[in-house]
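My current task is to audit a protein record that another person submitted. I have pasted the whole thing underneath without changing anything:
***
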Amino acid sequence: MSENGQHPAWDVLLWLMIFLDEETCHRATAVRDPRFDGVFYLGVTSTGIYCRTVCRARRPKRENCRFFPHPASAELAGFRPCRLCRPEQAPGFTAAGEGAELAAAAVRRIEDGALDDGDTLPTLAEELGITSRHLRRVVREHLGVSPVELAQTQRLLMAQRLLHTTRLPVSEIALACGFRSLRRCNALFLERYGMPPTAFRRQSGSAAGVETAERSLTVTLAYRPPFDWKALLEYFADHAIPGAEHITPESYARTLRIGGHTGWIKIMPEPGRDALRVELAASLAPVLPAVLQAVRRTFDLDAVPSAINAVLEQDPLLAPSVASAPGLRLPGAADPFEGAVRTIIGQQVSVAAATTVMGRVVRAFGEPLSTPWPELNSLTLIAGRLAAQSVDILAPLGLNSGRANALLALSRAVAEGKIHLRRSADPPRTMAQLEELPGIGPWTAHYIGMRMLGWPDAFLPGDLVVRKALAPLSPRRIAEYSRIWRPWRAYAVMHLWRTEMEKVKQSRSRQKMKSDFGNPASGPGSQAFNLQSL
């Protein structure tokens, strides 16, 4: 362990991401290491181009290399994006060290459009619970640019993505990417790239056929391998919301409502690439940046498996699971409020029972939506609409008074803006606010923090599976033990759940074999613990 209580392997990654040790960066780019894709970017002084670590172009001489933590810092230094590896498609920004989580939260909010549509820097700073001055300092310290410059680069990168992969008119692209006018979009393209968007599209050889007859759009989102798509899809399938989600062995589809725009999305792996293919209804094009962020958080695409595994594999308890499932991700939520409602409904009941009740709630208070799939036909919940209900109305749907009151309290807090369920929120503060609501205890609050807020250090010391794995330690001692997993305790919980589920599957398989040979065994309901969380 190092002096700060972290593992040496994590210290190496900290050094890489905070100080951008040039020799380490150069070695990673020399072998095109996909684990560092999006962690930093290579600027080539001889060409004026910046690239991802996985770029297929010939490697430049060492003296011509510069390294940057974000595309915005590379562009501010005068470099243009590579047309071959397309930096706009790299996995999302990842930071580490003091103030890093705050910087990452600012990046996520800006990517969601926090500085678009008239929003100001003081508004963003207030959301993050800091001053504008401190926000500027933290972002510049970690990225080398100001928040405004970061926002400008994000708009440009998103515009490049749409110019490459869609036939949308440039005017629509400009508005979808947060530019207040086509004129401002043209001006920034000329300033940064020396050409207007139309010329950029012609030179990029924009792909044809990426829009279907139904006017859907298709884009790709990259991730850092390994990525356990099958495990994540199985998790979502077990917790799918009838009408709002439709999951097959190959794909995930759901309805979505963002900023007054509604539609559907469908996600599948992109063959031959470390990326997911995202198809979405054209009705969601005006809020495409927010849609893609929703997909990123749902599938945990910005995770750095090499950093996570380097910490967790040091613990003999987790090492076997890490070795067999190095691409395990945190299952997120495209709609955090919906996910929080599903969590409360699932308290003290089985996964199947929670799914049934959640389906009733969505049918009662959601809205119908036409999609290409008959199974996908409902928009999910709005906090204000659910907050206007009563216990008497919720009870016939299968909710007891305790869970109904908790649901109403959460809905009112979210509708009134007292609680913000988004990844830029301060997780400990938000979870403390959740625990103040009736019927919401530590397990529920931390599970929401883990999945809906995407907090990688969320932990559930009172979880039955966690307690069983670390028996005979008390919850307090379990919390102390978990420090060796920081800052990735949520991933440690996922590995413990996975290990327990594998044991359950093996037990059921053995029981079935005995039954097949005329020796009946107790069924799966005989498990001594509740697998609701799994």
